[in-house]
Structure to design on (874 residues):
């Protein structure tokens, strides 16, 4: 049972990492448009484009 | 696309045959389910959308360049770059101006690709970002003044672009709120997941010191849920308590707080009875269902775009000081100003015509499909379009006070005044939650004298078990699933409420032009003067040349249809003398000493060949003797007749409300097998509204500004594809595919959705009452109740997800073709 003393902190660290990155992703507006990026990856970048402006 | 010979079904008969034979897109290979949406090129290739068509063309030709073809800005989009328009519609990001558009016609990756190329074609565009889930495009510019060009390019590509008002405070707040909801949901998921993990070991018999530790871990993970995730419930409860209304959140908050306090006491006392797991799952499921619901409800094009369109248009005002016309925005016009309106422009204000005559297209106000000729001194209304000649008008009412302005104002007021029909389930759940709390309190006060600890336990079990959250989220979940299905098919439903109203619809009112019919003329055939059905009669080449040469000068839709038809027939343009337009009738002219007269247009009563076409006859006279008839038709949507028959079989009565002449309307009604009392013609927008008010539980289907007043009244309304902007604003539902069969689909969707909701409600009522009784009589402990409750929610969830057979098939098959 002593293994629990290792596993539980690991679980807590994993959870806090998930929550941290999830909140970060929401604030970065990554969940605002779920459809376009899926299509966008099918398109080849065939010429140099200016960096996308944050909207 | 403007110069290439791409044709849609409406414009060419051969395309109709293609529709039946081609089932996959030539470019992307996906099946074309909706023949009406398809695009057909001259060499017989079919495409699912304009994007595919354009990409295919570029790939085939190699050298094809769009940079050159759509380079000129269309004057109709000039208003996008006027200062007054930019004030309301532009957004500024990093010192660059940007504008958001709602794009109609986005279908697949090809559309995304083609729109992504805009910065390459217009170098002044910094960035174009398409959001496919909302069909919005954000365009930012390097230098100002190119939004009109972007819109022109989009329209040249075959898309329709409507500017959306810039993110104002409310929209910004809404976006923040969405983020907040999502963050709460994520935290709730993480915490409740871990709580479940720890609780599992407790349920499977963990005892001793470790059990205590797990209890405190549960508590630690529950605290964020209690203080952060559950905030919306506290706020909603507080708001509704202040308004004096019962709230569905009452038992949720009660259960959370009582459960938390009780669990805390048990934890401190070293007792293993805690409810953190069930409470956290409760919060998570409720948050999830509410988030899905709010994301599904679409909010788009809800700005008074039409008003701004008229307001910001540049018009030419006579300046008596300098004796020339000044260009000013229509907003600055005053009464008694003299304004010049050129061919193709919209009239900026109500006024009186000063020049001899002018042809206008009044369809925005009346729905009338034919141009109207106005003479000196007659009243001309704002919003109508000058189609031939020019107009000099004396302003009588400025845009805001004009007839269209008044209608738009009323529409906007009624949108805000719409009394929200509090849905049946909400009410039931609200009263049920009060009932449960009262019953719990009564039971507690009665039983506390018998056995205090048992009283606490049983009351808590009752509140947790009978908490109508299954009932509460059954409805929003089922509705949001249906809304999602509908929006995938291209039916944008603005609120779940209108889906609910559709269920009770008894009368459907259709507009005629553009709704039941396609609203465009097409050439059918020539007929000999004695109208005999002798097959392929055709006038001689000389006559064809004459017709072409004369009609080429007219802007009338009938003339344009004839010209378009004749252009493929190697006709020559001959010099015409003494060309005269005959007011409200046709055009005449002299060629080589022969006097030709081309006159429209009576509904052709003898035409029985094609049940889908409303045909009119154009008579062609040469030296005052009738030499031929041209038979033109406005085609009924192919699904119109079927839809009306199906609505009939559902017990729903169809009516036609039209601003058009009674002869045309009655011929449409006859083709659709509708009785005489089922159509009314020559209606003004106000009259349409009056008629609908007399029919409760009615549905209005339309496309024009003349329908928008009727749409905004208490009925539910559907705007069909190609509707004008004010109609989009007023309508509850916006359909992005052609035809009227969506009306039937939507009603069936609504009926099936409510079937599922009823099933859920019956289940949750039975469960709540049976469980409540069992809890009171002590058969169920709070722990069992806490386990049973998510199970009941799961049952409701799967019942909603499975839906009915109809709902499962809704997106897979095209009902207009298969049924």
């Amino acid at each position: 049972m002593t293994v629990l003393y290792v596993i539980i902190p690991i679980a807590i660290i994993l959870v806090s990492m998930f929550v941290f990155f999830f909140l970060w992703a929401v604030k970065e507006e990554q969940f605002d448009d779920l459809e376009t990026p899926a299509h966008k990856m099918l398109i080849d970048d065939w010429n140099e484009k200016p960096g996308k402006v944050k909207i | 696309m403007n110069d290439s010979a791409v044709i849609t079904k409406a414009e060419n008969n051969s395309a109709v045959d293609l529709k039946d034979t081609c089932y996959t897109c030539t470019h992307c290979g996906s099946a074309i389910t909706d023949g009406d949406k398809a695009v057909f090129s001259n060499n017989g290739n079919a495409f699912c959308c304009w994007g595919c068509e354009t990409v295919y063309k570029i790939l085939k030709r190699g050298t094809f360049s769009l940079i050159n073809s759509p380079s000129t800005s269309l004057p109709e989009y000039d208003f996008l770059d006027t200062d007054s328009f930019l004030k309301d519609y532009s957004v500024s990001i990093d010192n660059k101006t940007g504008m958001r558009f709602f794009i109609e016609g986005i279908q697949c990756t090809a559309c995304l690709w083609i729109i992504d190329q805009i910065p390459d074609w217009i170098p002044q565009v910094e960035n174009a970002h398409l959001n496919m889930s909302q069909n919005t495009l954000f365009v930012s510019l390097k230098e100002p003044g190119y939004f009109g060009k972007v819109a022109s390019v989009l329209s040249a590509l075959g898309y329709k672009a409507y500017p959306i008002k810039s993110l104002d405070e409310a929209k910004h707040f809404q976006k923040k709120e969405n983020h907040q909801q999502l963050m709460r949901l994520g935290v709730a998921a993480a915490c409740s997941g871990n709580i479940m993990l720890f609780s599992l070991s407790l349920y499977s018999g963990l005892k001793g010191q470790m059990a205590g530790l797990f209890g405190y871990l549960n508590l630690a993970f529950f605290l964020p849920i209690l203080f952060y995730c559950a905030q919306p419930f506290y706020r909603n409860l507080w708001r509704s308590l202040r308004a004096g209304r019962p709230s569905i959140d009452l038992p949720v908050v009660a259960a959370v707080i009582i459960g938390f306090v009780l669990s805390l006491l048990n934890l401190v006392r070293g007792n293993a009875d805690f409810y953190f797991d069930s409470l956290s799952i409760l919060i998570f499921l409720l948050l999830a269902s509410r988030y899905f619901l709010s994301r599904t409800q679409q909010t788009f094009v809800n700005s008074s775009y039409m008003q701004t369109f008229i307001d910001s248009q540049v018009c030419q005002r006579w300046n008596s000081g300098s004796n020339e016309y000044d260009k000013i925005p229509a907003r600055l016009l005053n009464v008694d100003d003299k304004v010049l309106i050129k061919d193709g422009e919209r009239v900026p204000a109500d006024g009186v015509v000063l020049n001899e005559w002018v042809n206008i297209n009044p369809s925005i106000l009346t729905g009338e499909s034919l141009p109207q000729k106005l003479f000196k001194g007659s009243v001309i209304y704002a919003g109508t379009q000058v189609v031939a000649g020019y107009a000099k008008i004396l302003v009588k009412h400025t845009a805001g006070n004009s007839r269209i302005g008044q209608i738009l104002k009323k529409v906007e007021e009624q949108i805000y005044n719409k009394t929200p029909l509090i849905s049946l389930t909400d009410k039931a759940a609200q009263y049920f939650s009060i009932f449960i709390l009262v019953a719990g309190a009564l039971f507690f006060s009665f039983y506390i004298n018998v056995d205090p600890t048992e009283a606490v336990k049983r009351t808590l079990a009752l509140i947790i078990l009978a908490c109508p959250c299954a009932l509460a989220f059954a409805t929003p979940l089922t509705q949001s699933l249906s809304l999602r299905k509908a929006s995938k098919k291209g039916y944008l439903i603005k609120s779940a409420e209108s889906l609910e109203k559709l269920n009770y619809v008894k009368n459907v009112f259709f507009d005629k032009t553009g709704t039941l019919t396609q609203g465009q003329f097409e050439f059918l055939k020539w007929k000999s003067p004695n109208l005999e059905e002798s097959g392929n009669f055709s006038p001689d080449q000389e006559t064809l040349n004459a017709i072409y040469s004369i009609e080429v000068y007219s802007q009338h839709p009938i003339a344009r249809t004839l010209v378009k038809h004749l252009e493929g027939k190697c006709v020559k343009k001959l010099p015409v003398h003494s060309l005269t337009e005959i007011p409200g009738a046709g055009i005449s002219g002299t060629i080589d000493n022969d006097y030709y007269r081309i006159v429209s247009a009576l509904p052709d009563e003898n035409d029985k060949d094609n049940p889908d076409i409303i045909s009119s006859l154009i008579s062609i006279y040469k030296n005052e003797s009738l030499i031929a008839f041209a038979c033109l038709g406005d085609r009924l949507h192919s699904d119109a007749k079927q839809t009306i028959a199906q609505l009939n079989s559902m017990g729903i009565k169809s009516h036609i409300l039209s601003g058009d002449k009674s002869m045309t309307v009655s011929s449409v009604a006859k083709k659709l097998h509708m009785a005489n009392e089922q159509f009314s013609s020559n209606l003004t927008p106000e009259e349409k509204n009056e008629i609908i008010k007399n029919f409760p539980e009615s549905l209005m289907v339309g496309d024009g500004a003349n329908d928008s007043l009727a749409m905004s009244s208490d009925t539910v309304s559907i705007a069909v594809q190609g509707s004008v902007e004010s109609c989009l604003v007023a309508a509850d539902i916006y359909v992005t595919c052609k035809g009227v069969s969506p009306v039937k689909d939507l009603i069936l969707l609504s009926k099936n959705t409510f079937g599922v909701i009823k099933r859920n409600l019956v289940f949750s009522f039975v469960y709540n009452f049976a469980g409540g009784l069992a809890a009171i009589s002590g058969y169920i402990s709070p722990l069992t109740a806490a386990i049973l409750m998510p199970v009941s929610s799961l049952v409701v969830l799967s019942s909603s997800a499975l839906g009915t057979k109809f709902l499962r098939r809704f997106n897979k098959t095209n009902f207009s073709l298969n049924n």
